[in-house]
Amino acid sequence: MLYVTGDLHGEFSKLEKLRLNEDDTLIVCGDFGFIWDNSKEEIKVLIKQFGDAAYRVKIAGGDGVEIHAAHAHGLLGGFLSPLYNKRCDEYGGDIDGRLKLTLEVLAEVRRVCGDDFIIDVRISGDEYSDGGLNINDMTYVAKQLEKAGANMLHVSGGTTIKRGSAIPAAGTRQGSHVELSEAIKKHVSIPVATVGRIIEPWVADEIIANGKADACMMGRANLCEPEFVNKVYEGREIEIRPCIGCLRCLNGIMFGKRIACSVNPSSIRSFTSSTVTADI
């Protein structure tokens, strides 16, 4: 499995050159240059590759996948956002055209992996940018994703270009996108998760108890403290290493280094030593 990031500028030939062998699946989650560079032929292949990647997860024992269409990021987020999608064919224009690729990816994953496979779709409930997607747009998108067979929605916010909007920094309030999940949750029947600097158990409990989301996604908090959930369950909250929001974890991988944590230096060792190759 090959996870592709970087700027490919829509040159389809580069995708094939990145294969290690004929059996490799390209997981396409990077910057493909201008959205309008991708030909319809390339789009069909990319859709199939999303399905192939999801199927590998299934046969490796995974229960589901998350399709990332948030933050105007990568292929799907870029196609969905009016800030970057300037295509004039059926994959551009109005919101239905810009959503078309994400729906086709969802359909392919469902076709390949079956009805018993969980498909979560991550979206930005608001891009917090003039001319970008807003909560009205994304409420409509959420409804279409549910109709298309998504089992769950992961509602984030912002874009990767407007720094700090998608990944809240230190000092940012906890549950920074919770108003978005709350608004969307009123209009769909599938579970809706929220995200954004949720680092304390009581905050997550309050969000769920108050009906603002059905689940809380906690990325950096769990990188900092891999036993976060177990310690909460066992009543040992006081032992949880606190994520300080310094973003060292993100900064490292942006420069091609291994993920690291300022509060938990042992994270590098634990992440590498626990990796197991699936027998597929």
Characterization of this structure:
It is built from eleven helices and seven strands. The protein has 280 residues and is of the alpha/beta class. Helix 1 links the parallel strand 1 and strand 2. Helix 2 (40-59) packs parallel to helix 4 and helix 4 (95-113) runs parallel beside helix 5 (135-147). The protein is globular, with a radius of gyration of 19 Å. Mean pLDDT is 86; it is low at 1-33.
What is the terminal separation in angstroms? 11 Å
Order of helices and strands: EHEHEHHEHEHEHEHHHH
Average predicted local confidence, pLDDT:
86
Major sheet: order of its strands?
3-4-5-6-7
Low-confidence stretches: 1-33
Rg calculated over all Cα atoms: 19 Å
Q: Roughly what percent helix?
A: 25-40%
Can you give me a brief rundown of this structure?
With 280 residues, the protein is α/β, with parallel strands linked by helices. It contains eleven helices and seven strands.
Descriptors:
single chain, 11 helices, two-stranded parallel sheet, 280 residues, 11% strand, alpha/beta, disordered N terminus
How is the secondary structure organized here?
Blueprint lengths: L1 E3 L7 H6 L8 E3 L11 H20 L4 E5 L5 H7 L14 H19 L4 E7 L10 H13 L4 E5 L21 H8 L6 E4 L5 H9 L5 E3 L1 H6 L3 H6 L14 H7 L12 H7 L7
Parallel strand pairs: 1-2, 3-4, 4-5, 5-6, 6-7
Helix pairs in contact: 2-4, 4-5
